[in-house]
Each structure stands twice: as C-alpha cells, then as structure tokens.
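Re: weekly structure request thread

Next one in the queue (233 aa):
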Amino acid sequence: MAKSKEEWKVYKNVFSEFSLRTIFKLSSEGHFEELESPILMGKEANIFTARSKNGTVIVKIYRLENCNFNKMYEYIAADPRYNRLPRQKRNIIFSWTQREFKNLMIAREAIRVPTSITFKNNIIVMEMIGDGISPAPMVKDGRPKDPKDFLLRVVDNVIRLWKKGLVHGDLSEFNILNKDEEPVFIDFSQATYSKGLKSRELLIRDVNNLRRFFKKLMPLSKVDKILKKIELN
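Done, posted below.
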C-alpha cells in the first residue's frame, strides 16, 4: 500500500520538497510503495531500492541543487534530440533524466541493462538487477572469477551497443554489475549517439577505463589483445 503524503515527509531532510512531491506522485501511481535502502548517496543523484507489488525496484533521484549542471548541459547540447533546449537548470535536469530513460530503452534492444519502468521530472524507476533482495555488485566489489571471459563479454556489449547507435561514455568498474558472472551495464546518463560529435572520444575513454581496471586482474598484454576488438580508428 502506497504511503500518504505525510508519511513521505520522513525524508524531508534528504530530498527537496519538489522531489518529495514527485516521489509521492510515482508512489501513488503504483510504481513502488516505499523506499527501502540507500545504494548510493552521490553528488548528483541518490539511488534507493524500493518495494513494489512486483518486487524490489531501483529509484534514482537526481539532485536539483547540487548536480553538475554545466556538465549535463555540455552532453545534452551535443544530443540532436535536445538541440533546442533552453539553458534553464531545472529543464536541463528533467531532460537529463528523460534522456537516461530513453538511452536505457535503446540499449536494452542490444544488451542486458536494467529495464526502465517510468520517469517523472528528476526521478527514474527501473528494474533492480540482483537476486530479488539485494542488487548485484559493481565489478569493483564483485570481481569476476574469470576476468578474461568477463572482459570478452564486456567488449561484446560495447560493440553491440555501438552498432545499435550508442556509446556508454562513462563505462568503468562502477557502472558494470557482475550478475552471476554476466556483465550488466548501468548508468546511461552520459550515453551518446555513436554518430555524435564526441562519440569516438567517449568510446576511447570507455576503453581506457576498462584497460585501467582489468590490468589489475590479468596480464596487460591479454587485456590489450581483447580491447583491440573495439575498433577505435
């Protein structure tokens, strides 16, 4: 049963009044009943698990006050879907949220990502990747048992995503989950069309991040041999 508006005020020191109203609206629409555990309390977003009638979901809440507005605008301004967007802070944050939702919808046609359920204003509700109770670990915490095989799967996902028309743009051990030794990409807020002006630059950054992390788990020569499957020229 969804909480009342008064009950949501327990979070008044965590969220802005506007975010609280949006949380209440999404809850009253039946997308989740109540927030449960914080997964990440970041500079730009707070991420919670939430109980719903269909199980546990993820609720990602972008901060309205402390987010890096200039970085968001830089990415959105290069996105043809938003090239006429006024440079107004709240509109940019709302569009950033919508953009991540749309990117997830595109990505899911090519690789395993969390299923996006809904979004409103500065909040996205999505599938929780995990065992039904707890989220799957980030690769930084849940290191793969077979790093070579796991990296091959990651590279295959990068290629599939590129062919589908997207580059992740912020791929690292923080944005890849290890779900039963299968990589699942998360956080598509910076994902960009592969035909965009900065797409090649972002792809190179993703490759460099993968190289930096996986060389800790296996010989660098093997890492580089696998990463060469991603064509950077």
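Residues 33 and 175 are 26 Å apart (CA to CA). Residues 89-107 form the longest helix (19 residues).
Next request, please.
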